[in-house]
Amino acid sequence: MTRKLAFRTRVCLLLAILAMGIAPIGGPAPLGVGTGRALAAPAPVEVAIGLTALPVSLDPVQDNGLTALATYSLLYDRLIDIDDRGNERPSVATSWRAVNDRTWEFKIRTGVRFHNGEPLDAAAVKFAIDRALTAPQSRFRTTLGPISRVNAPDATTVIVETSEPFAFLPSRLGTRVWFYPPRYFQERDVAGFTAAPVGSGPFRFVSWQRDNFVLLDRHDAYWGGAVQIARIRLRHMPDYNSRLTALEARELHLGYIMDVDDAERLERGGFRTVVQPIGQGFQYFFRTTIASPLRDVRVRQAFNHAVNKDLIARVFFAGKTRVLQGQPVGPDAQGFDADIKPYAFDQRRARQLLAEAGHPDGFALPMDIGIGFAPRAKEVAEMVAGDLRAIGVRTQIQENERGVYLDKLVNARMGPMWELSLNYAPSFDLLPVLNNFICDTLHKSHCDPQFDALYRRWVGSFNEADQKRLGNQALRYVSQQALALFLWQIPGIYVTSPNLQGVRFRGDYTMNLTQATVR
């Protein structure tokens, strides 16, 4: 048989096999050829995002941590959104007002539907708020404020009543409760809903594997306008090196919270770096409620003078962060006081304050830090310890695994000095910060009845001028009493691959994908 005839014979045989719908050896039959099926639509382009953590549950009442918001904000909606600068803007609620000092009215957007077609109306909003306040699984039962009753008199109105005046209810409630269809949830209960959640956000649920990934597809009927990205895979990657390796291998389109040095190196290779400081202030809290030299305000002030915060920010973050200006929040917080003077780096002054407090030769002090809570936590602790050593304070760094650290925090078993990344996102007001300095906190680091009285007047004030004045007084008290070693705002450093464009990041750890595209 000639070579040409052999070739023709093989072609004819292959055509005959395809005509019978039989797959040739080495691969399946091409779709639409002899199979009786139409050509399948091409698979959607999948954008892979490496997060520092997925929520502990896709039931949005079970995780109130900041890292959960990145996932929840794509699947669900809330009453109020936060823009790139920390300002409130309408979402499901188009407007809100105080009817009196114990009653708030929210007007609900019309025409919004969940992914399964159920309406997102006032009844759905009431259902979600009630469950956040009462469900055994809820992490919000004590954090939403003194809510006593929620009513939905019509489809577009929600009335929230409080047991005492609470001026911060819109920001506290509006940014923390996410919505899901009541009938669907009731039919499936917690376990069924968590396995296949339904929201109303720009993406709808496809599948998930706990502590591995969540797969979401674009919701074309989204009320806010459909995004262009068709599919997103959110990956649970708490290990920093895993995120870095995956980015370098082009397995990720986007990496959350990257190290500044690696970000700059990746940028030289064509990646894009975005810096968006997070609404989170990193500091060491001082426990004034236990016996230690830190009960003396002069010692606490000495610590703030002793540490070179600007140098640490340059060494570890290449200056891509904001050093806290003598207060526990950054300038993106509503209520930030630009007139508060930061503690200048002055070790001579620090030693003088220690001597005035009766410690001219210094003292030894344990310092609790957590593993995996903040970037460069151990290296930072060592540098802080070095600065304190220069004024005679000998710190013993005590590293704590995540579970141990959280147990110490919620059961008030921290030592006299301990690390805390203090969130003022997602609401970007002073409430989640200042309530860490009242007597009734889990960690019980400070207790002063006079400050508590000031705090109660502040949260109950509906007069804008009075609220600002009282908030400034409370913030100045925290600063002047040096209730923490104020360090810096956590830098949000995000790295995207060259083919992902248009992602915008917010200070509450969420991302805006409205204009995002992938090539």
Task: Sum this structure up briefly.
The protein is an alpha+beta fold and about 525 residues long. Helix content is about 30%, strand content about 20%.
Structural summary, described in words:
- By secondary structure, the protein is an alpha+beta fold.
- Helices cover 30% and strands 22% of the residues.
- The chain has 15 helices and 22 strands.
- Strand 14 (363-370), helix 11 and strand 15 (393-400) form a beta-alpha-beta unit.
- It is globular and about 70 Å long.
- Residues 1-39 have low confidence and may be disordered.
Features:
7-stranded mixed β-sheet, alpha+beta, single chain, 4-stranded antiparallel β-sheet, 22 strands, 519 residues
Beta strand count: 22
Instruction: Tell me the strand order in the biggest sheet.
Output: 8-9-10-1-11-18-12
Amount of helix: 25-40%
| Chain-averaged pLDDT | 89
What value does the Rg take, in angstroms?
27 Å
Task: Sum up the overall morphology in one term.
Answer: globular
Instruction: Please tally the helical runs, counting DSSP H or I stretches of 4 or more residues.
Output: 15
- Judged by helices, strands and strand pairing, the structural class is alpha+beta
The low-confidence runs, each spanning 5 or more residues with pLDDT under 50, are 1-39
